[in-house]
Amino acid sequence: MGKLIGIGILLCALLAGGAMYYLQVYHFYEEVTSTGTDDVQLTAIASGTPEPIIYQDFQAIDAGSSPIRYRACFSTELSPAALAETYQIYEDAEPLTAPGWFDCFDAEAVGGALEDGSALAFLGVENVLYGIDRVVVITDEGKGYAWQQINACGEVVFDGNPVPEGCPEPPQGI
């Protein structure tokens, strides 16, 4: 009788673990439908507003379960050096990993390109959601990557602390 109970517990644990893995890696993600015109935006230095740039081959995924699950890949003919003259650089870009099946986005490779200077990070959209910035990276080869990461205001407010000076007031419910 004890062996049957043990086998039953083991099977339940395996099923629960498999379900949890599937839910985290596959279930919540959805493909983002490209508009073809404004999927990739960078924030202009002069106006402080996001502007679309020229891009091709756009692919993206997102999940409603978390504001930082957005990942995108694209290509562009614009060079990082030319873009840096017009658009805001993003200093603290930290590429977040994507699910393994979204194979166009390799966070380690993007991070390496940022470190060795073969790519530049730009502010895509500040506070795309409160406390979350969209970061866009362009490599010297014309490959582009985007993700959303928590900004300085979000780090403080999401930890339950008062809104720091210079940060916008959070919407109700945060």
Highlighted features:
28% strand, six-stranded antiparallel sheet, two-stranded antiparallel ribbon, 174 residues, alpha+beta
Q: What is the alpha-carbon Rg in Å?
A: 20 Å
Question: What proportion strand?
Answer: 25-35%
Q: How is the main sheet built?
A: 6 strands, antiparallel
Tell me the helix content: 25-40%
As laid out across the biggest beta sheet, the strand order is 1-4-5-8-7-6
Number of strands: 8
Dominant shape: globular
In terms of per-residue confidence, which ranges show pLDDT below 50 for 5 or more consecutive residues?
A: none
Q: Please count the helical segments.
A: 4
Question: Average pLDDT across residues?
Answer: 92
**Structural classification:** alpha+beta
Topology as a string of helices (H) and strands (E): HEEEEEHHEEEH
Describe this structure in words.
This protein has 174 residues and is of the alpha+beta class. It is built from four helices and eight strands, in the order αβββββααβββα. The protein has helices spanning 2-27, 80-84, 107-116, 152-158, and strands at residues 29-31, 41-43, 50-52, 56-63, 71-75, 119-129, 132-139, 143-150. The chain has a six-stranded antiparallel sheet. It has a two-stranded antiparallel sheet with strand order 2-3.
